[in-house]
Specification:
transmembrane helix, transmembrane, alpha+beta, Heat Shock Protein 90, 2 domains, 5 strands, 383 residues, 11 helices, 5-stranded mixed β-sheet
Length: 383
């Protein structure tokens, strides 16, 4: 399947296309002069230099601006005309777009002043309509480039803020829905299960008080009611409690399972504030589900929890020392795989070096990593 046009003409491919267009533009301007008056050999260098440095704009926009403007100034005495100024105009717009306001504005003002002085000098210091027209034309295009870069930057900032606001609204709506579901579950199920548990407990107590052995079915009902109450409480807790850095609470999570006869060793060395909230959430839920499965189904007595960073990913590993048996995927394992797949990670469930192992790898680039080659460079705090 072919990529859509917007993807084919993005990133480096778009840079190279624009570079080729600007190079053809300046070479055409030079060729016109060469055919008409003859072009000195050195004159081709500044005409080519400005466009050729343009692919560096994502990481070095100031360098591109300086070289492009310098090339225009160097080729000015050749009389190549307005076509040769196009790379400088594009460089000014790009520098303004990437946030280098000071150098962009300074360059435009300096070029505007130089243009005015140069035109006056060529006219013998006599201001007439032709001099004013030439000066205003160049100054106008310089300011158009400046304003276009600034307006595009403001538009992208507005779109990013709108997207962020939309995501926050979706998250708030999801949180409200979780609370509503938790409330409905509590009102509809908790009371009923509690009544069943109490009635079964009273019946067992009366039977034992009479000296009779409680029926096995009644005991099973009481145990099932206890398990259902505990599981429902955990479900309600998960639905209501969805704030905060979850990986920072892995140790507290493990403490809840230690009273069930398991030795749990936790090693979590993650800076939670530097992890994307979705990855943080998914990693915590995977640890929670894996611990629950280990406590319920493992034949061992120890569980090892490891959460650490591996390059641009978070690795989550929960392993128990029980004997790995046949794996029957249930809702827990299915839910873990869905979380991992949604984030583009990988999941391994089965025998490992320690025992039965659940290992998930979730993509989580470092926040200080260099900007992607297909995107904009990270903007500095001040220009």
């Amino acid at each position: 399947m072919s990529n859509p046009p917007e993807r084919r003409l993005s990133g480096r491919r778009l840079d190279l296309l624009v570079t080729a267009v600007m190079l053809a533009d300046t070479l055409a301007a030079g060729l016109i002069v060469d055919v008409r008056d003859g072009m000195p050999t050195w004159g081709w260098l500044p005409l080519m230099l400005g466009p050729l440095v343009f692919p560096l704009w994502r990481r070095h926009p100031r360098l591109v601006l300086v070289v492009s403007v310098g090339s225009v100034l160097a080729s000015g005495p050749l009389g190549v005309g307005p076509l040769a100024v196009v790379p400088a105009l594009v460089a000014i717009a790009v520098a303004m777009y990437t946030g280098y306001r000071a150098i962009s504005v300074s360059t435009v003002l300096a070029l505007s002043a130089a243009t005015a002085v140069g035109n006056l000098y060529n006219a013998g210091w006599e201001l007439d309509a032709q001099v004013a027209e030439r000066t205003l034309l160049v100054v106008g295009w310089l300011h158009v480039a400046l304003i276009s870069g600034l307006s595009r930057r403001q538009r992208d900032a507005y779109m990013a803020e709108a997207e962020h606001t939309r995501e926050e609204a979706v998250k708030r709506k999801a949180a409200d829905e979780r609370v509503r579901i938790a409330r409905e579950l509590h009102d509809s199920l908790t009371h009923s299960i509690s009544v069943i548990r109490v009635q079964a407990g009273v019946a067992i107590h009366l039977a034992r008080k009479r000296g009779d052995e409680p029926p096995p079915a009644l005991v099973a009902v009481e145990e099932a009611a206890k398990d259902a109450t505990r599981e429902l409480r955990e479900t309600l807790t998960m639905l209501r409690d969805d704030d905060g850095h979850r990986l920072g609470r892995v140790a507290d999570l493990a403490d809840r399972y230690r009273g069930l006869g398991f030795t749990i060793d936790v090693d979590c060395e993650i800076d939670c504030t530097a992890v994307d909230p979705e990855v943080d959430h998914a990693a915590y839920r995977i640890v929670q589900e894996a611990l629950t499965n280990a406590v319920r189904h493992s034949s061992g007595d120890a569980v090892r929890v490891r959460v650490h960073r591996e390059d641009d990913a978070i690795a989550v590993e929960v392993a128990d020392n029980g004997s790995p048996g046949r794996i029957v995927p249930g809702r827990g394992l299915t839910g873990m795989r869905e979380r991992v797949d949604a984030l583009g990670g990988s999941l391994h469930v089965g025998p490992g070096g320690y025992g039965f192992t659940v290992r998930a790898t979730l993509p989580a680039p470092e926040p200080t990593a260099a900007a992607d080659a297909e995107g904009l460079p990270e903007l500095e705090g001040s220009r």
